[in-house]
Amino acid sequence: MSLHSANxxxxxxxxxxxxxxYGTFRAVKQVNLAIERxxxxxxxxxxxxxxxxxLRSFNRMNDLVASARVEGEILFHGQNLYAPSVDAVEVRxxxxxxxxxxxxxxxxxxxxxxxxPRVNGWKGSKxxxxxxxxxxxxGAALWDEVKDKLHESGLALSGGQQQRLCIAxxxxxxxxxxLMDEPxxxxxxxxxxxxxxxxxxxxxDYTIIIVTHSMQQASRASDNTAFFLMDPEDxxxxxxxxxxxxxxxxxxKDKRTEEYITGRFG
Amino acid sequence: xxDPTPKSAQPSIGYLPQGFExxxxxxxxxLQGTLWRNLFVSSLLIGILALLVLIGTIVNDAFGYVALxxxxxxxxxxxxxxxxxxKEELVAxxxxxxxxxLFRRLENDxxxxxxxxxxxxxxxxxxVVQQQVIESYDLWxxxxxxxxxxxxxxxxxxxxxxxxxxxxxxxxxxxxxxxxAEFSGVRNALLGSLWMIAITVVVAFPLGVGAALxxxxxxxxxxxxxxxxxxxxxxxxxxxxIYGMLGLAIFVRALGFFTSGSFLGLSDSNGRTIISAALTMxxxxxxxxxxxxxxxxxxxxxxxRQASYGLGATKWQTIWHHVLPQALPGILTGTxxxxxxxxxxxxxxxxxxxxxxxxxxPSSIFSKFTALPIQxxxxxxxxxxxxxxxxxxxxIVLLIALLSLNTVAIVLRNRFRRSL
Lengths: 266, 420
Prior knowledge:
By secondary structure, chain A is α/β, with parallel strands linked by helices. Chain A is built from 10 helices and 10 strands. Chain B is built from 18 helices and 3 strands.
């Protein structure tokens, strides 16, 4: 398979005519979305508009739901992620994910980070793993807070620290894209701010796609924004508008976008 | 305020208590709760009472006075009390008073040079003095009617000696089966039970966890999986005697060549061995282990699996590193239940053919054997009262063995839980 081809185009992920089904129900219809490399792309919209479903389809997390099915194409390095020759495990290894609720493993902080590399065939010495753990934690701006308690349980950290631990854990397997599914919805404002600062930092090396309920967050911390809405006729999520964040917020082209971002519905 | 009738022509919306009525209403509702609470407390008390009666009956039977009579007066054997004699003198007495054949057999069982003084003393009592329990009393009688017992004894058996006896003693634990209650012991039965449980767990645990993992992780939600689940739930309710019949047909008869050990050249001719019984018990507790393991695996939060998959772990890596460790405490709970069940089951053992009278220790998985519940069943059905006392003592041994096994499993489980 060719997820390795040196296709260094402008876009990291391109969805073409993508529809997602749960059984016979079409949850998302006809989405065309090109995610720019090393940018933060925010997916916004009211509940039930399919934005999380879209995000999960990018690293084939939807495969875990037996009835889920994707039509159309999602291109990554020019290769359709849903082609029969592509292994979902490799997709998830290359496209990492951070979840809505912080979900560290019930193990030590160190083991939380080391797990990803180990299961992915990492080879190296103990000191190299120490180095990898430190670098991942530094990458997630967590090192200074936890460097003295690496062997304590990850569950003993605060919610915000746990979420940054999950980001560090994702960084440790060196993905190209990081998907974030409402990463701050369970966090207080200060922790939220830290995660947002971290995202800005990570943008230098990674492509980030974030689902958020907070329009402030989208406008503060993203480069591009995609606005989704449920089609009232068939209840399928639809991409309404997609563009640079400041254009979308300052001068929305679609009336529905304007109504949503000004808080008139949703 | 207390006027319930609506003033306008609006449709009625019913009537909520007002003023004093609120207090009355609350008091009535609280009374209702108190009544239920008392009902629950009394059911708990009834349960505790039943348990106490059970333990009381067993303890009552296992301790008490015994009237001992000697066939041969120890004073005729030696000038000093037998207890104070040395081992050599006791051996000499033994040799002089029993047949050559019996002496040689005892020597064969264990050479006299290796036996202890207590052991030889016991043999002298058993073989020469032939001390016998001619009457036994339960604990309650012993404590409350001592005078009456003594009077009765002196009038009927002036030679007999009254002695307080704990039927549960070291001798009981270390002796094997005998034809007289006072010389009987549970060593064979206890060892047989432990051998059987060990093999049962070794067989049933991996099979049960494996089946549960497959059903829960690999074929979850499919029609066949649901059908199998229903059937496993039903199997858990099948009477144990049926499992006994199954074990008899399959392990003892059909696979007798293997379960008897004759495929290894062992001389045993039939399959009524520890391995047959253990495999039958494993079948019996498999549904229990599978059901509990499935529950435990199902309870592993989705977020944990997602986190693992999200990092590029394969299904097996996710199961091995996260699902299994997280589910292990629950799986062990099921195993504890299974062990308790297997330890106490009697019916399948009778059918599979555990021996009731056996004097040798089990030495391999192809040994003939007996088990604690079988011994208890056998003793309890004997006509002599003394065997009832022995049965009670064996019940105490069974309960202690059960509690110890469960304690080990619970400690293990808690350790796993803490390491999470």
